[in-house]
Design a protein that fits this description.
about 350 residues; alpha/beta; Rossmann fold; Beta Polymerase, domain 2; eight-stranded mixed β-sheet; elongated; binds adenosine-5'-triphosphate; binds magnesium ion
């Protein structure tokens, strides 16, 4: 396991849900490999991510296969299914400890996390042990700023002090490093939402991964009831109306209901609305989930709530898109689905809105 000069082999670990792996992960991995002088970098999808249990995940074997496809032919990258062999949630501290036990004398590990993950690292199991089990490397991810990362580091790891540009160490041997890497504004959440709404994901992830995803129907709504009959239609219109009212109660603005029956296989209705700020959007999603579940309208999954720029809520036959206003105009879903009839839900009757012009 040692390199030719007899030194310990240097391996970077790049973990995460990787649902799916994208060019943001791959470019960050490539730069980490280069700047840290690593021999290898292992992409290690979490088997059961502790932080992501609230939404359905693509099964491990698909996420792992997409990693394999993404790195095919790149010798210094490896796909690792190490976390698949342990039952229960995949806690990083357990993974590092086990790797340490197995490879300790031969491999020096660097554990790589993005700045967004680092800014909430205190919620991870035994996070304070991480910089002792391996070097903890924090890579840049939009929109984090270096000052903010340093401030967080000092708060969460008070025993560490700066020992060089981007290097922080503790007297007892802990190591943390802040590493500037390209900030590609790509996220798996955005990719999943795009797939769900029929938007293009080309050039956000390797072409082989894109094709695999399409071929395996990943990230489409799973539960679409394809039998359309009038009883079901009435139920879903009534549900759409209750959701519409709930958005109004939460001060959602410019609510638009699109009738997607016969147009999209993923849902009967899309409801699009906006909030004044990302906080407003997050608050709205949170309240809606609670209030609607009292009406037995269950939200199967929510995506994008962490950021609040575009929150997608899946109510089976109805998909709700809550936007922070500038993001709504950027994606222009109404323009994309311009052939879908718009329904007016104001007043007592549901009716078609008059087309403009
Ligand atoms: P999701 O939107 O589902 O959370 P994600 O794009 O954030 O997906 P993860 O699998 O959550 O991807 O992230 C795995 C690791 O990769 C984390 O440490 C995260 O900070 C980092 N990461 C994700 N996207 C990027 C990116 N565009 N640039 C740099 N690092 C990234
Ligand atoms: Mg993430």
């Amino acid at each position: 396991m040692k390199d030719r000069s007899g030194n310990r082999k240097k391996v970077g670990l790049f973990g995460g849900t990787l649902d799916p792996i994208h060019l943001g992960h791959l470019r960050a991995g490539e730069e980490a490999h280069e700047y840290l002088g690593l021999d290898e970098l292992w992409f290690m999808p979490a088997h059961i991510p502790p932080h992501k249990l609230s939404r359905p995940l693509a099964p491990f074997h698909h996420r792992f296969r997409m990693v394999e496809l993404a790195i095919e032919g790149v010798e210094h990258f490896q796909a690792s299914d190490f976390e698949a062999h342990r039952p229960g949630p995949s806690y990083s501290v357990d993974t590092l400890e086990e790797l340490h036990r197995i490879h300790g004398p031969d491999i020096a590990f660097s554990f790589i996390v993005g700045s967004d993950a680092f800014l909430e690292i205190e919620s991870w199991k035994e996070y304070y042990r991480l910089p002792y089990l391996s070097e903890l490397v924090v890579i840049s991810r939009w929109p984090a700023k270096t000052d903010e990362l340093v401030r967080h580091l000092q708060e969460v790891f008070p025993d560490f002090s700066q020992s060089g540009k981007g290097f922080f160490t503790s007297d007892t041997g802990g190591k943390i490093r802040l590493l500037k890497t390209a900030r590609l504004e790509i996220s798996s959440t955005d990719i999943r939402q795009r797939v769900r709404t029929g938007l293009s994901v080309r050039y956000l992830l390797p072409e082989k991964v894109r094709r695999y995803m399409i071929h395996n129907n990943l990230y489409l709504s799973v539960s679409k009831n394809t039998k359309i009959n009038s009883a079901n239609d009435d139920i879903s219109i009534e549900t759409a109306r209750i959701i519409f009212e709930e958005i109004k109660n939460n001060k959602g603005e410019d609510i638009c209901v699109l009738d997607m029956r016969g147009i999209s296989p993923v849902a009967d209705f899309f409801i699009i609305a906006q909030g004044r700020s990302t906080k407003h959007v997050q608050g709205m999603a949170n309240k809606m989930r609670k209030e609607l579940s009292r009406n037995k309208i269950r939200c199967r999954s929510t995506e994008g709530e962490d950021e609040g720029k575009w929150v997608l809520m899946d109510f089976d036959d109805i998909i709700v898109h809550l936007f922070y206003e500038p993001v709504r105009s950027f994606y222009d879903l109404e323009g994309l689905w311009s052939e879908a009839p718009r329904l007016s839900m104001e007043g007592d009757h549901v009716h078609l809105e008059e087309a403009d012009g």
